[in-house]
Amino acid sequence: MASKVFIHVGLPKTATTYLQTILWGARDQMRAEGVLLPGDERRDHLWASNILRGKSKVSAKRPEYAEGAWDRLKAAIASWPGTALISHEFFAAASADQAHHMITELAPAEVHVIVTAREPLGLFTASWQESIKNRATTPLAGYSEEVSDNPLDIWNWRTLDLKLVLERWGGSLPPQHVHVLPLPGKDFGHDEIWHRFAGLIGLDSHAYDLSGSFPNESLGVVESETLRRINEHLGTFRNAYDRGVYIRTYLADERLVPRGGERYWPDEEQIAQCRTRGAAAAQYVEERGFDLIGSLDDLRVPNELVPRRHPSSVTDAEVAEVAVELVATIMEDVRDRSEERRALKARVAELEHALNRSRIRSLLGRRPNL
Fold first, then answer.
1. pTM, to two decimals
2. Are 134 and 224 in contact (CB under 8 A)?
3. What are phi and psi of 68, to 5 degrees?
């Protein structure tokens, strides 16, 4: 059995994809240092989070394979003598009972929980944008108005409020086994969170290639509002594959993000709520004596904010301009893909013709002499 298991539970939008990309690209290197990233593939950790949070059906092309993910992780950990790591931000939504069950299932290993975090205003804004990238249509002004009591809900204060997540995950562990890693401030490079995270789990962080990983890029205010309105017409794009491939990757990350665009804030009432939640989280971390790797100030909303627009200020004319340019880009993509398919079909036809000629020559060569 692994002697120690780290469960990285998020929060969402706290460099989790950045960290996981590095980790999954260096599994063999990690094993050489005594740290196991269990499972057959990256999605095993997502599927395990779904199972442990009570999702009745795990969405996948092979449901029976996906539904065995948690058992595969446990089996790998049970046969590993060193340190193991489980990482997915959707664990943050687990209930206190579900968190306790997962920790108990990993006994007798010494379990530690890692919570990467950031100040709530930036987290709240990034979270809304992530929901838009996943086909949500709720305007920012109406986003996350309540705390969901459903462990399957991700994009609301259930997973965004550090204090609430720590209350559910920290109750079953000694405070020194709960590690809070705020995203470092502007005085540090974006790779600082990797060095802090890797050092915590026992890796030589400077020995790893970080070139293949990069932080998620943001949509501008007009681009975000344009995508939100497009989503209202994508009612058939319901499954995870459609959302991930066509909306998040193709439309958002590949077509709208490169436009740049203005940054934005929520409204004053939401900013005030973020400020209150950040202060409460910082106080809770300090009072409970959790292992803080970084500064409490990085959990609080700054007192002074640079002025930014709100998505409600975006005009129809601005959306129309982005939408028209987006249609033109999609038309180019359709043409390019069509030409690629024609070229591929022509090449397949050539190969089939050559293969048929070869078969004919082979048959003629074997014809008996008369």
1. 0.89
2. no
3. -95, 10
